[in-house]
Write a structure and sequence with these properties.
The complex is a heterodimer of chains A (519) and B (211).
Chain A (H helix, E strand, L loop, with lengths): L27 H8 L3 H23 L4 H17 L1 H14 L3 E5 L2 H15 L3 E4 L3 H6 L1 H7 L3 E4 L2 H8 L16 H11 L11 H18 L2 E4 L3 E3 L4 E6 L3 H7 L3 E7 L3 E2 L5 H12 L7 E6 L9 E7 L3 H5 L15 H5 L1 H6 L10 H12 L21 H5 L6 H15 L4 H13 L2 H12 L1 H5 L4 E2 L7 H4 L4 E2 L6 H6 L1 H15 L6 H8 L1
Chain B lengths: L3 H15 L20 H14 L3 E5 L4 H11 L5 E3 L15 E3 L14 E4 L3 E3 L4 E4 L16 E7 L3 E2 L2 H5 L8 E4 L4 E2 L7 E2 L6 E7 L3
Parallel strand pairs in B: 1-12, 2-3, 2-4, 4-7, 5-8, 7-12
Antiparallel strand pairs in B: 5-6, 6-9, 10-11
Chain lengths: 519, 211
C-alpha cells in the first residue's frame, strides 16, 4: 500500500504521454484515409484475414465445448483481476524461490531502464528478442539502441519489420502488410552477405532468415522475451510460438529477461488447460501452435542460468480502476478480433497508431495511455474507429464485450471533452425540439438544404461545426417534405384512412385490392 | 522512498478499491475433462493430427523400437546422432552411424554439428497432435531437441492422452516443459505455411503401441 493512502484512493496514473508506442501522431480518420489508398495493403489484408477467419472457424467448430471453454477463460481472467495483488505476490514468491529475480516497473520508462541495466550488467552489447507485445509497447528496442545495445528481433515477421525500419501492423502477423516481393527486396538490402540471387519463394526467404539468425542464436548471451502466461501457483512462465525462434532465445543464452504485463498472470497451473485450447485456435486457427515453452525459474544444466522477470504496470492499473474498462485487461492477445473487424480489414494496423491495433486496441490503447482531450489526443479518435457490428465480441475467446466498451469510452470522451461545437449543436437541437412551433419552422428551413445538396441528394462537405462529421461520411439531404407536412396533406390523410379501414376489417383485403385480384 | 514494487501493488489495491469486483462467482469448468478412448482410437486420432502437422509417424511394437529408429535415421540420411544421457541405449543399437551422448557441459552451439537427435517424451495429447517434453533424463536438456535439424521422438501410446486437460494434468509444473506440435513452421510471408525455420525441419514420431 502506498505511503499516502488515506482511505480514498486516487485513480492510478496511465502510461506517460508520448513515451513508447501507445499513441500515433495523428487521429485515426486522417491515418485511415491514407492507408485506404494503399491497394497493396488492402489486397494483402483482405486475403490474410479471410484465410485466418476460415481456419479459426474450422478448428473452433471442432470442439463441442468451445462455449464452455470461453466461459471458463472469461471467468478465470475476471477472477484474476479481482485477486491481482495476492496473485502477483504469489508469482513473485514462486519465481524467486526457483532462482529467478523479480523486478517491478511503474511504467515503460522504468521497465526500459531496468532491462538496459540488466543487459549492461552482463557485459553484452546485443540481445536476441522473442516477439513480444509488451516490449513493443514500451519501445524497448529504440531505448536500447540509444544506449548502443543492438536488439535482434528473431520472429520472421518482426525481423522483416525491423529490417524495413517499419512498424508492426498486426498483433500476430506483424508484417501482414508486406508481400513476398517487398520482403525479398528488404532482405537483399538489409541482410549482410545474403545470396544476391535470392528469389521471392516464401520457403527460400525463410531459409535466408534461418541462416542469418542461426549465427545470432549461437553467439548472443542475453535474450529478452515477453510472456503469454505467468502462473502464480508455481512461478511458471510460458511463451507460445511457431518457428522455434522463441525456443532458441529461451534456451541458448546465459541470461533471460522477460517483460510481462501484470495482467498476464493466471492463478493456477491447471488454468493452462483452458488457455492452451483457447489461444492457438483463436489466434492462428490451429489446434495447437507448433511450439510452447514453459519454464519455472532456472534449471541447473538446462537453459539460461540467470532469469529476470520484469512486471510492468504502464497504465494497466488505471484500466483496472474502471469497473467497465477492466474487462479489456482480460485480453490474451490472440488477434481474433482484428481478423473479423471490417474496419481493421480495410485500414490495417498502422492507422491505429498503437502497438495494439484493431478492436481490442481501440479499447486498450486509450485505457493504458489515456485520451487527453486538452491535447487533441489521437487516442481520443480510437473509440470511434468502429462500426460496432459486434463481430469482435463473437470472436473473442474470453468474451470481452468490445462494442460496449467502445461505447463506454465514447461516453467518457464526450464527458471529458467540455464545451465543443458538437455539444453546442446538440443543446441547440434540444431547445428547438422542445418547442413545436420553432421545430416546424426549423424543419421548413432545413428543406432549403436540398438546393445545396446537389443532384445526388448528398452532402459531402458540411460547414463547421459539422465538418468533423462529414469528413468521413456523406450526409443525405433533408426530404422535400417533413413528416408533419406530409401527414397534413391530402395524400397523407388518404393513406391514414386506408390504414384505419384495413385495421377495422381485421386484415381482410380492401375492396380496391379485391377488385384488382378479380380481374 | 517507496519502491516500484510498493507503488505498483499499491496502485493495484487502489484500483480494486475504486472499482470493487461485481461478484465472486466460482469459475465454471463445464468443458470436457477426464476423457478416455480405447488404444486404437487414441492412436488413430493422434496419428491423424500428427500427419496434419506434417510430422512423420511410425507406429511400432516395443521390441522393434531399435529397428524402426534405425530405419528412420537411414531414410533421413542422418549419421551423427545426439541422445540424452538417460535414453535407453538399446534404442540406438541398430543404428550404424555415430551416437553422441549429450551432457550439460557440451556447449549448445556444438549441437549444430549433429544430423539429428533421438529422445523419449513425457506426455502427448492426441486431439491436438502435441508432444510434451519435460527435461527428464531420457529427454535431455531443451537445446538438444531444438538445434539439430531432425528430431526423432519416441512416444509410448500409454502416455498419449485424449485432450489438453488430460495431458496438462500429467505434467510436473517445475520441469522445463516444451510442447511440440509438428516441425517448426512459419506463416509470416503472405500466410503461406513454410515448414522449418529455426527448430528441426523434420519431426519423426515413433509410437510404441504396446509400451
Amino acid at each position: 500500500m502506498s505511503a499516502t493512502f488515506l482511505g480514498m484512493p486516487a485513480t492510478p496514473p496511465r502510461s506517460p504521454y508520448g513515451t513508447g508506442n501507445l499513441r500515433g501522431d495523428r487521429k485515426f480518420p486522417a491515418a485511415a484515409h491514407d492507408e485506404l489508398r494503399n491497394e497493396q495493403l488492402r489486397g494483402n489484408l483482405g486475403r490474410a484475414t479471410r484465410t485466418i477467419r476460415a481456419k479459426r472457424l474450422t478448428v473452433t467448430g471442432e470442439l463441442p465445448d468451445w462455449e464452455e471453454l470461453r466461459d471458463a477463460g472469461s471467468a478465470i481472467k475476471t477472477d484474476t483481476m479481482n485477486r491481482l495483488p495476492e496473485l502477483l505476490e504469489e508469482l513473485e514468491r514462486n519465481v524467486t524461490a526457483r532462482g529467478g529475480t523479480v523486478h517491478w516497473a511503474r511504467d515503460g520508462v522504468e521497465a526500459n531502464e531496468i532491462v538496459a541495466r540488466l543487459i549492461k550488467e552482463t557485459g553484452s552489447e546485443e540481445v536476441i528478442k522473442v516477439k513480444s507485445m509488451a516490449t513493443q509497447e514500451i519501445g524497448l528496442n529504440e531505448h536500447l539502441e540509444s544506449l548502443g545495445i543492438t536488439a535482434h528481433e528473431t520472429d520472421l515477421a518482426e525481423l522483416i519489420v525491423q529490417l524495413a525500419h517499419d512498424k508492426p501492423s498486426h498483433i500476430l502477423v506483424p508484417a501482414i502488410h508486406r508481400n513476398r516481393d517487398e520482403i525479398r527486396q528488404i532482405f537483399l538490402k538489409e541482410i549482410p552477405g545474403v545470396d544476391p540471387s535470392l528469389d521471392n519463394v516464401p520457403a527460400h526467404l525463410a531459409a535466408a532468415a534461418r541462416v542469418y539468425l542461426r549465427e545470432k542464436f549461437m553467439t548472443t548471451e542475453v535474450a529478452v522475451s515477453g510472456a503469454n502466461f505467468g502462473i502464480a501457483e508455481t512461478g511458471t512462465l510460458s511463451v507460445v510460438e511457431s518457428e522455434g525462434n522463441g525456443r532458441m532465445c529461451l534456451t541458448l543464452p546465459d541470461t533471460l529477461i522477460t517483460v510481462m504485463g501484470i495482467e498476464k498472470v493466471l492463478p493456477r497451473y491447471q488454468d493452462l488447460e483452458v488457455f492452451l485450447q483457447l489461444l492457438p485456435r483463436s489466434s492462428t486457427g490451429e489446434r495447437m501452435n507448433p511450439y510452447t515453452s514453459m519454464w519455472t525459474g532456472v534449471t541447473p544444466g538446462d537453459g539460461p542460468q540467470t532469469f529476470h522477470l520484469v512486471l510492468l504496470d504502464n497504465g494497466r492499473t488505471a484500466a483496472l480502476a474502471d469497473r467497465i474498462g477492466r474487462e479489456a485487461l482480460n485480453c490474451i492477445r490472440c488477434s481474433a478480433c482484428l481478423n473479423v473487424c471490417p474496419v481493421y480489414e480495410r485500414t490495417g494496423g498502422h492507422a491505429y497508431g498503437s502497438t495494439y491495433p484493431g478492436p481490442i486496441g481501440a479499447v486498450l490503447t486509450p485505457q493504458l495511455a489515456g485520451m487527453d482531450a486538452a491535447r487533441d489526443d489521437p487516442n481520443s479518435s480510437l473509440p470511434y474507429a468502429s462500426s460496432l457490428c459486434g463481430a469482435c465480441f463473437d470472436a473473442c475467446p474470453v468474451k470481452i464485450d468490445i462494442p460496449s466498451l467502445l461505447v463506454e469510452l465514447r461516453h467518457q470522451h464526450t464527458e471529458r471533452s467540455g464545451t465543443t461545437a458538437e455539444k453546442l449543436a446538440m443543446k441547440a437541437a434540444a431547445g428547438v425540439m422542445s418547442r413545436p412551433k420553432v421545430y416546424t419552422a426549423a424543419q421548413k428551413a432545413s428543406g432549403l438544404g436540398r438546393v445545396l445538396a446537389g443532384r445526388d441528394g448528398k452532402f459531402s462537405h458540411l460547414p463547421p461545426p459539422f465538418s468533423g462529421w462529414s469528413e468521413s461520411r456523406d450526409t443525405p439531404a433533408p426530404p422535400e417534405q417533413t413528416f408533419r407536412a406530409w401527414l397534413a396533406s391530402a395524400e397523407g390523410a388518404a393513406t391514414m384512412r386506408a390504414a384505419a379501414d384495413e385495421h377495422t376489417r381485421g386484415g381482410q383485403p380492401t375492396r380496391d385490392q379485391q377488385q384488382e385480384e378479380d380481374k | 522512498m517507496t519502491t516500484a514494487r510498493e507503488t505498483v501493488l499499491g496502485r493495484v489495491r487502489d484500483a480494486l478499491a475504486l472499482a470493487p469486483a461485481a461478484d465472486g462467482a466460482p469459475v465454471p469448468r463445464a468443458y470436457r475433462t477426464g476423457r478416455t478412448l480405447p488404444d486404437e482410437e487414441r492412436l488413430a486420432l493422434f496419428t491423424d493430427r500428427l500427419a496434419d502437422y506434417k510430422a512423420r509417424v511410425h507406429p511400432c511394437t516395443a521390441d522393434r523400437t531399435a529397428e524402426v529408429i534405425a530405419e528412420v535415421l537411414r531414410e533421413q540420411g542422418a549419421e551423427r546422432i545426439g541422445v540424452p544421457a538417460g535414453l535407453d541405449p538399446r534404442w540406438l543399437s541398430a543404428h550404424d552411424g555415430e551416437v553422441r551422448q549429450d551432457s550439460a557441459d557440451i556447449p549448445a552451439p556444438s549441437l549444430d554439428a549433429l544430423d539429428g537427435v533421438v529422445t523419449a517424451s513425457a506426455v502427448s495429447c492426441a486431439e491436438t497432435g502435441t508432444i510434451f517434453l519435460d527435461g527428464s533424463p531420457d529427454q535431455g536438456r531443451r537445446a538438444l531437441s531444438l538445434v539439430p535439424d531432425l528430431h526423432v521422438c519416441v512416444v509410448d501410446l500409454s502416455t498419449v492422452e485424449v485432450g489438453v486437460p488430460e495431458a496438462v494434468a500429467r505434467l510436473v509444473p517445475e520441469r522445463p516443459t516444451t510442447l511440440i506440435s509438428g516441425p517448426s513452421a512459419t506463416s509470416d510471408i503472405e500466410l503461406e505455411r513454410v515448414e522449418g525455420v529455426h527448430g528441426p525441419r523434420t519431426l519423426a514420431v515413433v509410437i510404441r503401441t504396446d509400451a
